[in-house]
Q: What sequence folds into this?
């Protein structure tokens, strides 16, 4: 589930994970009604949120054991699962340290481990990599891919197209509480138009000539922003086109401030699907969220 | 249900008790992990003992005579228990804000366990604080003159009251947005409750219009009940029912507070998913 802040991703997950009752409509998880059969759903799912919901004053092992027992596992099974998960998530050395001493990435891994304690068939991950450094993010991706390989059904929310691309078989793009597009990553990207090249020309006087050259090299329509002296063109030929542009500009004596091959971002998906950028609504949505938080009496 | 790891723990009421104990265990783990909390909770009460016993005590005469320290200690125990509801509220708010409550709510555990576990663990925590305070009291000359059974009876009454205050704390903790607000609200409410009472001064010393308030105040009835049970100086300002039957009135308070804030807290906890 891909969407900007405030699109309703977390709300959807909270409803499906039985933390929030829907105002209207109904939803089923594994054929069970989220309101009427909430208890049954809870013993099928695992949930890991945006922040690491583990107890700071317990050790990693104690956290896993506690959540295992509350998942209604026996004492022995909970112990055994805790040991397995500590091993799986590379937390063996820190297992008996208080979580307060863990790094952000370690907490996330422990949180994910907690969600997996009862071997759920269905896993909800709400922005599992938000706030992680690039290395931890890649590590998290590996873990998530491994889970999917093992046969866990995963519902993942993210703000990053790249992440959805890496991890999801099917992507639903969400905006303002509605799914506005659904498909595989390739289907969505072809809608957006793939990679593009951006060039910033040093001298405004050269913009006209530069535009002609770029359009010729990329064999596509070139968008011009006079104010920032930026040219944008679909990169049908990938990096090769970029090299060609650099050569031609050099020959023509056009100075370049900046040139880059840019992959489509969530913004591009939004622009092409809705005609507005993802950020435009953020301020407004943040307010909505804050209000929702107050009403529900907890941080979302 | 076909989950790979079959649930094996008891269901029904057994599950409610097991899960409540697990949550309580988790709450109590804070004590060894953050010993400062426990230490400062005790130091705060000891500070009140020292302030009043040695700074103001000499200026406060007890009608009917008696030692001020013996008069003071039951009040200190009562005040400590009233303030303890703040600990409960702060713990509750903290758990909500840190997402632990969401984690609990996503698990197939007994719904009641979060609140029963919290109230249960806080009573145990407060029992620990009271024991240390009683030893402090003995050290400065407070005595129980009525025997062991009365001592235990008074202690049991304190714990019952602590249980009621824990439910008040749960209810408060579920209503405030942050720990800071919890602290402010609580001390704004709790200071008057413990000071407009018979804890530090005999009710006779208060303006006459305040005396009935101070006498019926649950902190006062608890304090008077303890003084009566333990044979400590217990000057009554009037022959009101609260002053004559403090143990009974305190028990009524306990039942009333649980009957009001228990269901309100449970209701609020359920409404969190709205």
A:
């Amino acid at each position: 589930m891909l969407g900007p802040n405030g699109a309703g991703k977390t709300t959807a997950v909270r409803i499906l994970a039985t933390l929030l009752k829907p105002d209207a409509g109904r939803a089923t998880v594994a054929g069970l009604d989220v309101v009427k059969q909430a208890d049954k759903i809870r013993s099928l799912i695992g949930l890991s949120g945006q922040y690491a919901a583990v107890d700071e004053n317990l050790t990693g092992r104690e956290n896993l054991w506690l959540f295992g027992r509350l998942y209604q596992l026996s004492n022995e099974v909970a112990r055994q699962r805790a040991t397995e998960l500590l091993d799986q998530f590379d937390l063996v050395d820190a297992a008996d340290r208080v979580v307060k001493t863990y790094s952000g990435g370690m907490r996330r891994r422990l949180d994910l481990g907690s969600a997996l304690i009862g071997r759920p068939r269905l896993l909800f991950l709400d922005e599992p990599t938000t706030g992680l450094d690039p290395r931890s993010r890649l590590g998290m991706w590996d873990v998530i891919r491994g889970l999917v390989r093992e046969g866990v059904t995963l519902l993942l929310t993210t703000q990053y197209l790249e992440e959805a691309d890496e991890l999801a078989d099917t992507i639903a793009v969400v905006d303002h509480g509605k799914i506005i597009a659904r498909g595989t990553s390739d289907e969505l990207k072809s809608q957006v138009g793939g990679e593009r090249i951006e060039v910033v020309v040093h001298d405004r006087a050269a913009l006209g000539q530069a535009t002609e050259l770029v359009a010729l090299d990329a064999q596509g329509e070139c968008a011009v922003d006079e104010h920032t002296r930026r040219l944008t063109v679909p990169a049908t030929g990938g990096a090769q086109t970029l090299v060609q542009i650099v050569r031609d500009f050099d020959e023509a004596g056009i100075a370049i401030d900046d040139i880059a091959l840019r992959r489509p971002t969530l913004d591009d998906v939004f622009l092409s699907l809705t005609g507005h950028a993802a950020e435009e609504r953020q301020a407004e949505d943040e307010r909505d969220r804050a209000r929702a938080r107050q009403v529900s009496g907890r941080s979302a | 249900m076909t989950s790979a790891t079959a649930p094996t723990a008891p269901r029904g009421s057994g599950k409610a008790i097991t899960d409540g104990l697990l949550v309580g265990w988790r709450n109590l783990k804070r004590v060894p992990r953050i010993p400062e909390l426990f230490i400062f909770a005790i130091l705060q009460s000891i500070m009140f003992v020292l302030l009043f016993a040695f700074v103001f005590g000499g200026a406060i005469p007890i009608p009917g005579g008696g030692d001020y320290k013996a008069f003071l200690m039951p009040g200190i125990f009562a005040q400590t228990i009233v303030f303890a509801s703040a600990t409960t509220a702060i713990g509750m708010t903290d758990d909500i804000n840190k997402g632990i409550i969401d984690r609990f709510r996503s698990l197939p555990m007994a719904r009641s366990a979060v609140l029963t576990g919290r109230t249960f663990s806080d009573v145990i925590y407060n029992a620990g604080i009271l024991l240390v305070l009683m030893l402090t009291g003995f050290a400065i000359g407070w005595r129980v003159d009525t025997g062991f059974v009365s001592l235990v009876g008074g202690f049991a009454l304190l714990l019952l009251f602590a249980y009621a205050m824990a439910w008040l704390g749960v209810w408060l903790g579920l209503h405030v947005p942050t720990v800071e607000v919890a602290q402010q609200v609580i001390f704004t409410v709790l200071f008057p409750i413990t000071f407009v009472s018979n804890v530090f001064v005999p009710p006779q010393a208060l303006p006459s219009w305040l005396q009935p308030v101070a006498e019926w105040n649950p902190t006062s009835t608890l304090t008077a009940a303890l003084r009566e049970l333990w044979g400590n100086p217990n000057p009554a300002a009037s022959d009101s029912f609260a002053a004559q039957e403090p143990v009974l009135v305190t028990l009524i308070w306990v039942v009333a507070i649980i009957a009001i804030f228990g269901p309100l807290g449970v209701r609020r906890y359920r409404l969190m998913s709205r």
